[in-house]
Amino acid sequence: MDQYMCLLLHPDSARDFLVKNGDNFLNRPIIYTNQVLSHNFSGLSQARDKRWEATRNTFSSLSTNVLLRKKTYYVEEKIKETINHFANHQIGNKIKSWKFTKPLIMNIFYEYFQISEPFEQTMVDPECWELIEGLFDFVSKAQGKPLLNSNVFGLFIGLYHKLSDLKILKKSYSVIKKKLVDPHMDSIDRNAPRDTIDELILLNESYPKEQQFEHNVIAPIFDFLNAGLNSTSILMEWFLLIMANHPEVQEKIYEELSTINKSFISTKNRYKDTPYLNSVINEVIRYRLGTSTAPRETKEDIEIGGIFIPKGSRVAILTSSIFMDEDYWENPQQFIADRFIGEPKGHMERLLLYSVGKRQCVGKNLANDINYLFCSNMILNFKIKSSTNTIIDDTPIFKLNSLPISHKIILEKR
Ligand code: HEM
């Protein structure tokens, strides 16, 4: 059977498809490799139909659950620890930024799902590293390899899975179970779920007994960590790289932050106090974060705007095209720090980084919080410089994400 792929190149068509006709595009396509790796579409990011809906609903508690909202406090604490760590141990060192951003994000995620006291450990919890390594293995095997989408590779992975019990996932699964799920299981009150993990445990109990606990409870948490870790870290890496190349922009951000007159910038400052920084962050996203959103599959034949899309087609938003389209942006190839000041009409609607509609990124608010706190407090405390005193090559490498070329930066204390 012919397989069609429909790439959405206009923000309006992205909304026509994924919002107005969203119910027809809720599923991910069946890719055999993903089917095997997601244990037959369990978890969240590859789940389909009713299974996806039920699991996704449990994650809605992320933005509504009071306990979790309170955890913004922990996010801020983790950022403070990182800034202190940089100030005390990393000044003048040549730094690969991902070596710090990834553990920071993983620590924040852990806190988010913890029910006990927050970690005493700062920066790099050894088990946290173990989990990161597991995820690295997994993602690096998947990054940018078209073969992975083929059935041939899927069969190979399937065989490997049978022989090895999918070792790449096993390590991460066991850390998630031990660190996050077991403490919930030990203290859950079935009449008063405390957070997303409690809700996943209850959801699992509503399924037939023979269905596996790890597929229903651990796989969605794994998906959450996996989907959030690299994407958020890469955004922060791009911010640091672009700042190293634009010291004049750093100074303007610093000037703006100085008027707040605080030793720590919090998420509360975002909307009223820092229009210039907000514009810079949006411009970093537009300038270097565009790729393609995760594909969806058409449930039924449909015609939208005179275009016929057969059932089973794949649909994705090509953000790399929208973010660089001359019809939408003046000089799109240039980094223009104040492009978003006052959020000129249409600019934010075109910044579809997290996709749109019911299946848009579930971690969008958390990613925005982490990113804002990190960027603002880094500039408040440090000058960011290239380790070679030359402009860092900012050509993106397109894989699953748009990655910066390997580089190092240096921090100087303000
Ligand atoms: C800059 C950071 C991030 C970017 C650019 C990003 C982008 C995306 C995109 C484009 C999708 C596909 C949405 C769709 O199909 O319409 C997605 C899905 C998802 N994201 Fe994110 N994301 C980010 C951060 C996060 C974070 C921090 C988390 C969790 C902590 C997260 C968890 C997820 C999950 C679980 C899905 C699958 C949702 C589903 O299939 O229902 N993401 N993300």
TrEMBL record:
Transmembrane residue ranges: none
Primary location recorded for the protein, binned into one broad class: membrane
GO MF term list: heme binding; iron ion binding; oxidoreductase activity, acting on paired donors, with incorporation or reduction of molecular oxygen, reduced flavin or flavoprotein as one donor, and incorporation of one atom of oxygen
InterPro entries to which the protein is assigned, alphabetical: Cyt_P450 (IPR001128), Cyt_P450_E_grp-I (IPR002401), Cyt_P450_sf (IPR036396), Cytochrome_P450_fam2 (IPR050182)
Residues engaged in binding heme: C361
Keywords: Heme, Iron, Metal-binding
Membrane topology: Single-pass membrane protein
Location in or out of the cell: Membrane
Swiss-Prot/TrEMBL cofactor(s): heme
Any one annotated GO CC term: membrane
Family: Belongs to the cytochrome P450 family.
Protein's name in the database: Cytochrome P450 family protein
